[in-house]
TrEMBL record:
The modification 4-aspartylphosphate is found at D54. It comes from Hydrogenophaga crocea. GO terms for molecular function: DNA binding. This is Response regulator transcription factor. The keyword DNA-binding applies.
Length: 198
């Protein structure tokens, strides 16, 4: 399965792509920072199966990206991923031609399972991917927090960047420490690099 991830946070995009690639055999994940760059990459990948588009993009939003890809590459499945897991947004994604809508609270194993279902021709708009899975590793949202931690950003700045509460950032950091078996933030970054997440 070949997946193109479009996300305008390069560090997160790289780490998330690495985590997906290591989470299952037979998956190749390419990355692009913008819809335009993604369209160029897709044109050079005739065997592309899925384009995974983040809802929050600097130059546009993921819904517009879904439509652009639908116009240019109608045979490539399109999936929107977002930290805003609003059912209305899922409906808008479906209306824009998405084959799936995935929330960033999903475990990596849940995301991989959902992507496989999409690759198999199914539509995935349910909450199956949110079920916690033992040993699943960081969630997509936690990967975003991790990427910003690696840039040296404090909790307040991370909260502002991701549009979430500061206490939520603290919860994500605590979960990351537990998931990666780290003692503190510095050790967390070391462990993340050891596991190929950064």
């Amino acid at each position: 399965m070949k997946v193109l991830l479009i996300d305008d946070h390069p560090l997160f995009g790289f780490g998330f792509a690495q985590a997906l690639s290591q989470g299952a055999s037979g998956i190749e994940v390419l990355t692009a920072p913008t819809i335009q760059d993604g369209l160029v990459q897709a044109a050079a990948q005739p065997d592309l199966d899925i384009v995974l588009i983040d809802y929050r993009l600097g130059d546009t939003d993921g819904l517009a990206g879904l439509r652009h890809f639908g116009d240019r590459f109608p045979l490539v499945a399109r999936v929107l991923i977002s930290g805003d897991e609003d059912p209305v947004l899922a409906q808008r994604a479906r209306a824009a031609g998405a084959s799936g809508f995935l929330g960033k609270s999903s475990s990596l194993q849940g995301l991989l399972a959902a992507l496989q279902r999409v690759a198999d021709g199914e539509a995935v708009f349910d909450n199956d991917t949110r079920r916690a899975t033992a040993g699943a590793g960081p969630t997509a949202r936690q990967m975003e927090v991790l990427a910003l931690l690696a840039q040296g950003q404090p909790n307040k700045r991370i909260a502002l960047e991701l549009g979430i509460a500061e206490r939520t950032v603290k919860l994500h950091v605590t979960a990351l420490l537990e998931t990666l078996g780290a003692r503190n933030r510095t050790h967390l970054l070391v462990r993340a690099r050891e596991q190929g997440l950064l």
